[in-house]
Amino acid sequence: MTELKPKHFVVGITGASGGIYGVRLTETLLALGYTVHLVVSNAGWRVFKEELGFAATDREGFLNEQFKGYPGSLLYHPIADIGASIASGSFRTEGMIIMPCSMGTLSAVAHGSSDNLMTRAADVMLKEGRSLVLVPRETPLHAIHLENMLKLSRLGVKLIPAMPAFYFGPTSMDDLVNFMVGKVLDSFNIEHHLFRRWGGDE
User: Fold this and answer.
1) In this protein, which residues make up the domain named Flavoprotein (predicted)?
2) DSSP E strands: which ranges in 41-164?
3) Is CATH 3.40.50.1950 what the domain over 8-187 is classified as, yes or no?
4) 85 is known to lie in a ligand binding site
5) Would the annotation count 73 as a binding residue?
6) Measured between alpha carbons, how far is 183 from 38 in angstroms, rounded to an integer?
7) Is 107 labelled a binding residue?
8) Domain spans of the chain?
């Protein structure tokens, strides 16, 4: 019997507030045994420092330490590495999630701008017809934001705004973060138990 190879997902983390969303998504995918190709924007690294206290000169070493101990594999790609595997459509992945997604990155994806690895990888998802999920985190929204989201939605991009729900009775910040990560996993039909579903016991 041929051994099944781990599935590959691309995760992008931008400078929008809410870096913890991307961190929790990466942890969850790794815990489920997937291979994660991680790209963090320069502004994303600043948010890591400001919101999570993450400060690192050796970024790859820091991430490997942060996400060690999981059955899945982490591959970190610097955002300037336009020659990385995920920049090519011939490299197969299950899809890409940008979580959180800044309005600048969302705009670049909507207009086909691919001047760094994150936006290039997103462009690959579009041209190859693969799943692309964006988790925008901004408020309030103006007309340009909304027009860009509508354009992407019409292209088949899944937009899951960072709007945690309260019907499941969250009691901590972790509960709210897990809810959003769970909604992203739902979009890929990945089984999880991150929150209690409406009408269910979990």
Assistant:
1) 7-187
2) 73-76, 95-101, 131-136, 158-159
3) yes
4) no
5) no
6) 19
7) no
8) 8-187
